[in-house]
Amino acid sequence: MLYKELQSHINKAMSSEVGGFSPIYYIYGEDAYLRERARLSIQEQIIDREFEDMNVSLFSNEDSIQDILDSLFQLPFFGNYRMVIVQLPTTAEKYGKNYESVGSKLDQRFVKDFIEAINKSYLNEINNSTILIITTEDAKPGKINEFCEYVDCKKLDLVALGLEIDRLLAQAPSGTMDADAKEELINRTLLNMTRISNEIPKLKAYTNGAKITKKDVQDLVTEESEYATFEIANALTEKDGDKVMKIINNQLSKGEQAMTLLSQLYKNYRNFFHLSLHLNDSNEEIAQYLGVNPNQLYYMRKNIRDYTQKRLKTCVDTIHELQTAVLAGEREPYSALMEGVLTLLTV
Description:
single chain, alpha/beta
């Protein structure tokens, strides 16, 4: 089923029209917000919050498969159900030939062994008092032979997206938004509910109870392609190579060009360098000089706090040299981008 169909399924399960809840739910897809909402939608109906700590178990590929199987057979504490949540790592299908940069064969092996253990061991003596929730970012889930409901958390259509935005606006402190503002928010985030869920609280705080307008969204919400390069810069600052490659490969899979990403990285690091030279100036002066929104400066300041001016200058010079080599036909854009990332991680 699609994410937007899950609530109807839950309503029927609660009224026993379909024989109650399924023993297994496989929640998959690229949008982390939708995956989390899907899990919580089920959990909130079957687990008493008072006993949540004792009736909800969380596992990942860092745990043993035997420990997961043992947990599936535990009995609930003061309730009808327990919930076992298994967060699977991303496998090769999403990142293709570049997967080794963002994961490992051990992750792929774990997923294969886990699915096999569920099919060969657990399904033969399933525990109806436990609900198993499997979550993964992968667009294609593993095959569970029976007793499994699949929940596809790919991007929502515009109607479902609008309803989800309304739900977020209604949460305290509640807010309202113009139709033009909704359209601008959707366009700037490319229908990404994870980003939208992060931006709406900021917009509420920014407008302080007033209706959110299109201009408010334009002032505060960075467009997706630019946002991705900020995320890359954040991951580079944290020296998180796996996260860097995950974002880059995700952008490339959407049709973004390697040269465009390299150019955006150059722009970001050039701005970081110039910001480091003008730290005592006002945000308005710096924003005007750099040609950026003043609201972005808070995040830019966070990015550069662990850099010296010398390191930032080295980063700028390195990326500029790689850009020049690509434009001169001396380097391929992708290899230049990879060298630039490696340099920024180690400089």
